[in-house]
Write a structure and sequence with these properties.
Number of strands: 0
Largest sheet: none
Order of helices and strands: HHHHHHHHH
């Protein structure tokens, strides 16, 4: 009965999806353009230009900026990296948390992974922990699973350590039962 009452609302949400996707694509393009302009100014010899560019990156608080910020971090754009990472780390938005989870697990730099883990400590565990557990359960590569375990433990050592041990034991147990 509840679904029938919500049908018009669900249809309206479904109809609006292409508009939201187009808006997200436009926002990504616009923020990426702004970030690349800031990068150009961060590389300039003019100290004032560098400071202004850094301030502009740090001021990107719109949740629609998160994919572009994440993109320049993943691309390891050296001049933009510190300000983009700080902006992402300071954002309370769930997409920022999910981006930090990906960085904490997949970055090839141990220092970057460490900074992402430190940042995740202040983020919503209800978003970060399920994303990490999904990696832990679904990722077959031992090295990545190890990074996930380290991230979980370092984020919330007291709350997560028993969970990581239980998941690891249950995965081993499940493999033994299946084989």
């Amino acid at each position: 009965a509840g679904l029938v009452r919500r049908a018009p609302e669900i249809q309206a949400e479904h109809a609006a999806a292409p508009d939201r996707q187009a808006q997200a694509r436009r926002a990504y393009r616009d923020f990426k353009t702004k970030l690349l302009d800031c990068e150009r100014r961060l590389k300039s010899g003019d100290r004032n230009q560098r400071q202004l560019a850094e301030q502009q990156v740090l001021a990107m608080r719109d949740p629609l900026a998160i994919p572009a910020l994440f993109g320049v971090i993943v691309e390891n754009r050296e001049a933009l990296f510190p300000a983009a990472f700080k902006t992402l780390a300071d954002s309370p938005h769930r997409n920022a948390t999910q981006g930090l989870v990906v960085i904490a697990v997949w970055s090839t730099s141990e220092a970057v992974r460490h900074h992402a883990i430190e940042s995740l400590r202040t983020h919503d565990s209800a978003v970060a922990i399920p994303a990490l557990i999904e990696f832990l359960v679904d990722e077959p590569h031992h090295k990545i699973r190890g990074r996930v375990q380290v991230t979980l433990v370092e984020m919330r050592r007291d709350a997560v350590l028993p969970l990581v041990a239980a998941l690891a034991d249950s995965r081993v147990f499940m493999r033994q039962c299946i084989c």
